[in-house]
Write a structure and sequence with these properties.
heterodimer, A: 588 residues, 18 helices, globular, B: 234 residues, 5-stranded mixed beta sheet, 3-stranded mixed beta sheet, elongated, binds protoporphyrin IX containing FE
């Protein structure tokens, strides 16, 4: 690769010499390296969050017994390996916080957003590379702060990832002191990180698209990241504000959420869910974008209803601001208001359905190649359907009165966040790995990982709907304390065993990532015969992304099996004469 | 075990309405899910890659988009209005109360306040009993729900009833039991280290049994409970 060419066209932030170790791997300003940094940070955090999940599953199936292999954990966290209630509360709090803020968001937004945006829109880097670096390192500091809370007296936060006040606002209520403060500080710092990231993404997508890359020629992955960045920009500050008030209540003697001083506990819930519902779409939209790209590529067909897909995402993003009250139907909020939120929630199901039907339409008359990436993307669709459909019961206010705060909700969360977001992540990793690391992943290992994960995932989370219907509350550490839950002990045992398989299977993914890095077959420029711009440069791309000039775009991203060419793909940047491309006509 | 793969036995007047809505949604979801999955699997098998074949170049179909958008919207909006009317029946215009209690959540017990011999709540002779709630069958019970410390949630699975107890607020709930028996009242909102295991017992009994129990209670009132426990975790 001619590095001189890269430097010559690199503009303002060109570096005259090859950067050294520190500037390449640690304090890198290259969006591709920052993307990988987010990936590795998230995989590391996933191991910790996953361990918490395994411990919780042990506790739920065999409550108040000693966890094998955990005798070394000091009191008061564990007693000879047995988990006391407060540790259990800390575990589900940290599990959810880690998975949401330090796994799903960093991979979907931090890793794919950084790695893909410049490459897919034809830019040499992000608009603000230094801000980008700062965003990652701020996020890493947030992670360190959160992990440090495991080591303070009283242990880490134990008020749930939703941190409902007053439980979270007064130390004696949980017995957790600095753990909760550090939780607050960590999320505030993370909020700063994501603010920097989102500003960068929005600016880059608006200003740095290459010639010919109109908005309606953007791959849906970029559309999804663009919309997600806007949600992030507007939602995270609300959470930051709420947490700042919570910290004042904890440390400054204020009473924003404490009724004793005239405060209002429900204020916290309104602020939290005003952030929280857009947040759940922040965690699914990029996966929807990724699944769209992968499904179109391996069906060798244009995505069905490209514009409908983009508009549906815009609709979801818009509606996500007016449904937050569906988390509060039984909170004491006015029931009439509850009805309003119920109607908006039903409506947000419509664009979700549109997306599903369009994915099916994409398969119709395709020529489907079952790569690991495709299988994960199809699993994404199938699992998202289940998660979306279970949302209807919960949106129905009278039914939610019964299933709120039960395992039915836990089932729903995991169908959308594991079945949805994480399968999207798996699809994305297997699809773009060759571009990121210059090597192909092992397909056989990938498929073994896929099948074990797919089966054990469903064995783990599907029965939770049944637990929820039986009335099994969430966030309890010993279901056997209740007579009405005794008959379903066997289901809890079955779930836990499946969960251990599910957890163990993730080592296959890790092994594949590491093995392929050293031993995988060398990746060519465009191993999947895909159309989008990232496949027009060597794998991995050089500094500055394209060795020569930046490609120019002539058409939309999904011209697979176009009648205009003999091959079954037609890259966005390929010039053909007299092209009568429909997508091109429309975007004029 | 099969009978446990469903809701707990229903003993409330509004329970059947809730279960009916659940089942209605169940059938809708089952039909939609089956249709989507069959379509998906059929497409996945029929259109698997074969050498020498090219996919058909189809970009979409506006008519189909309109059909499935309006169909989905219609189903969901009808469901929304059906849910709304049941919700309004339960939450907005419930029947007038016949028996009145105050219920207070605290870490980690339920305090049930019974009106004393004067029959009125909020007077000196009120009697507080921890974790034991007795109600007569076929009577509308109205409860003033609140909390002393954090948010708890008053949950009676057999009654399909759930309402958060929020400190600083009094929230009214009602229920009417249709069958006598013993049931549990778990707390269903995370309220601290003692959340798991926080539960009360509900006894639904005939009016005669209830009257007898109440007379005993008036004769030997339990000692008033200590203030909020707020114990520290072990
Ligand atoms: C398809 C339309 C969807 C509908 C109608 C829907 C509906 C709901 C409702 C009504 C609740 C509150 C239930 C309760 O707590 O009683 C809820 C909770 C939740 N939903 Fe969804 N949802 C949908 C999609 C999603 C998606 C796409 C995600 C994430 C990717 C998601 C993630 C969550 C989470 C994390 C919670 C639980 C939060 C908590 O209490 O900790 N949902 N959903
Ligand atoms: Cu929501
Ligand atoms: Cu509780």
């Amino acid at each position: 690769m001619s590095s001189t060419a890269a430097v010559a066209v690199h503009g303002a932030h060109a570096e005259p010499h090859a950067p050294g170790f520190w500037r390449t791997y640690i304090f890198s300003e290259d969006h591709k390296m920052i993307g990988k940094q987010f990936l590795f940070m998230a995989l590391f955090m996933m191991a910790i969050g996953g361990l918490m999940a395994m411990l919780m599953r042990w506790e739920l199936a065999w409550p108040e017994t000693q966890v094998p292999g955990f005798h070394w954990v000091p009191e008061p966290f564990m007693y000879e390996g047995a988990i006391p209630p407060n540790t259990y509360n800390a575990m589900f709090t940290m599990h959810a916080t880690i998975m949401i803020f330090f796994v799903v968001m960093p991979i979907l937004v931090g890793c794919f957003g950084n790695f893909l945006i410049p490459l897919m829109i034809g830019a040499r880097d992000m608009a603000f590379p230094k801000l980008n670096m700062l965003s990652f390192w701020t996020g890493a500091v947030a992670g360190v702060i959160l992990l440090s809370s495991f080591f303070v007296t009283g242990g880490p936060a134990a008020a749930g990832w939703t941190s409902y006040a007053p439980l979270s606002a007064v130390p004696i209520y949980t017995g957790v002191d600095w753990g909760q403060n550090l939780w607050c500080i960590s999320i505030i710092v993370l909020g700063a990180s994501s603010l920097m990231g989102s500003i960068n993404y929005i600016t880059t997508i608006i200003n740095m698209r290459t010639k010919g890359m109109y908005f309606f020629r953007l791959p849906l992955t970029i559309w999804s990241l663009f919309i997600t960045a806007i949600l992030l920009l507007l939602a995270l500050p609300v959470l930051t504000t709420a947490i700042a008030l919570l910290l004042f209540d904890r440390l400054g003697g204020t009473h924003f959420f404490l009724p004793a001083g005239g405060g209002e506990p429900l204020l916290w819930q309104h602020l939290f869910w005003f952030f929280g519902h857009p947040e759940v779409y922040i965690m699914i939209l990029p996966a929807m974008g990724i699944a769209s790209d992968v499904i179109s590529t391996f069906s060798r067909k244009p995505i069905f209803g490209y514009r409908a897909m983009a508009y549906a995402m815009i609709a979801i993003a818009g509606l996500s601001w007016i449904v937050w009250g569906h988390h509060m139907f039984v909170s004491g909020m006015d029931p009439v208001l509850g009805s309003g939120f119920m109607i908006t929630t039903m409506i947000i199901g419509v664009p979700s359905a549109i997306k599903t039907f369009n994915w099916l339409g994409t398969l119709y008359k395709g020529n489907i190649h079952y790569t690991t990436a495709m299988m994960n993307a199809l699993a994404f669709v199938a699992m998202f359907v289940i998660g979306g459909l279970s949302g209807i019961w919960m949106a129905c206010t009278p039914v939610d009165m019964y299933i709120h705060d039960t395992y039915f909700i836990v089932a729903h969360i995991h169908y959308v966040l594991f079945g949805g977001s994480l399968f999207g992540v798996f699809a994305g990793i297997t699809y773009w790995y060759p571009k990121m690391f210059g090597r192909m992943m092992n397909e056989r290992l990938g498929k073994i990982h896929f099948w074990i994960t797919f089966v054990s995932f469903n064995c783990t989370f599907f029965p939770m709907h049944i637990l929820g219907m039986a009335g099994h509350m969430r966030r309890i550490y010993n279901p056997q304390q209740y007579d009405f839950l005794k008959p379903i002990i066997p289901i809890n045992e079955f779930i836990s065993i499946s969960a251990f398989v599910l957890g163990a299977a993730q080592f296959l993914l890790l092994a594949n990532i590491i093995w392929s890095y050293f031993k995988g077959a060398k990746a060519t420029e465009n191993p999947w015969h895909a159309n989008t711009l990232e496949w027009t440069t060597p794998s991995p791309p050089p500094h500055g992304n394209w060795p020569g000039t930046v490609p120019i775009v002539y058409r939309g991203p999904y011209e697979y099996s176009s009648p205009e060419v003999a091959e079954d793909y037609l890259p966005q940047s390929q010039l053909i004469e007299h092209h009568r491309d429909a997508a091109d006509r429309r975007s004029r | 075990m099969l009978e446990y793969l469903y809701f707990p036995h229903d003993i409330s007047t509004f329970g059947p309405q809730i279960d009916w809505l659940f089942e209605l949604i169940f059938w809708i979801v089952l039909v939609v899910w089956t249709a989507v999955m069959i379509t998906m699997v059929v497409f996945m098998i029929r259109y698997r890659a074969r050498p020498g074949r090219k996919a058909e170049y189809i970009e979409g179909n506006s008519r189909l988009e309109i059909i499935w958008t309006t169909a989905t919207a219609a189903i969901l909006i009808v469901l929304a209005f059906m849910s709304r009317s049941t919700w309004a029946d339960i939450k907005e215009h419930g029947p007038p109360g016949q028996v009145f209690y105050a219920v207070t959540g605290k870490q980690f017990n339920w305090e049930f306040t019974y009106p004393g011999p004067d029959g009125k709540l909020g007077t000196k002779d009120d009697i507080i009993v921890e974790n034991e709630l007795h109600v007569p069958v076929n009577k509308v019970v109205r409860v003033d729900l609140t909390s002393k410390d954090v948010i708890h949630s008053f949950y009676i699975p057999n009654m399909r009833l759930r309402q958060d107890a929020v400190p600083g607020r009094i929230i009214h709930v009602w229920f009417e039991a249709t069958e006598t028996g013993q049931y549990e009242i778990p707390c269903s909102q995370l309220c601290g280290f003692g959340h798991s295991g926080m539960k009360g017992n509900l006894t639904v009994e005939s009016q005669e049994d209830f009257d007898k129990w109440l007379k005993d209670l008036y004769a030997n009132p339990p000692a008033p409970p200590s203030a909020t426990e707020g114990a520290s975790p072990k």
